[in-house]
Amino acid sequence: MTPAAAKAAYARQFLAHGETVVLRRLSGANAGDYVVTARIMNFEPSDLAGSIQQGKRKAIVLADEVAASGFPAPFLPKQDRLIWNGKTLVIHAVDDATRRVAGVAVAYELELAGA
Questions:
Q1: Which CATH number fits domain 3-113: 1.10.10, 2.40.10, 1.10.8, 3.40.50?
Q2: How far apart are CA 13 and CA 29, in angstroms?
Q3: What's residue 115's pLDDT?
Q4: Average pLDDT of the chain to the nearest whole number
Q5: What is the dihedral of CA 64, 2, 46, 42, to 10 degrees?
Q6: Distance (Å, rounded) from C-alpha 66 to C-alpha 60?
Q7: How far apart are CA 73 and CA 46, in angstroms?
């Protein structure tokens, strides 16, 4: 699969199943809110090991959509926030490798905590 094909497949899935969230940068010159689409889900029981604890969630956000929103790269774990369904969640970790195709980041997987 090419990066373009992967991006198109993700875009179709997000159109059908995604929801609008806000990425929030709390400090610095680019502090502010940035609107993107995400897929929010709970971790599977088999994922609950190490630093991933019950009650944490994960979000998948499209790399191109994050860039288009103007959100300043890179993510700042434990400083940046994701606002979802009226809840403010702390971004604890960012995985930019799992959803990479041929060296191109298609989507980021965010580990969230706080609600």
A1: 2.40.10
A2: 33
A3: 63
A4: 90
A5: 30
A6: 11
A7: 31
Helix, coil or strand: residue 30: coil
Task: Determine the pLDDT at residue 48.
Answer: 46
Residue 111, Ramachandran bin (φ over 0: left; ψ between -120 and 50: alpha; else beta): beta
Asked if 61 contacts 55 with a C-beta cutoff of 8 angstroms, the reply is no
User: In terms of pTM, does the model score above 0.70?
Assistant: yes
Q: Residue ranges of the alpha helices (H) in 36-105?
A: 63-69
Polymer length in residues for the chain = 115
The pLDDT, as a whole number, for residue 87 is 93
Q: At 112, list the tokens.
A: 């969230």
Paired tokens of 94 = 């960012």
- What pLDDT, on the 0 to 100 scale, is given for residue 42? 84
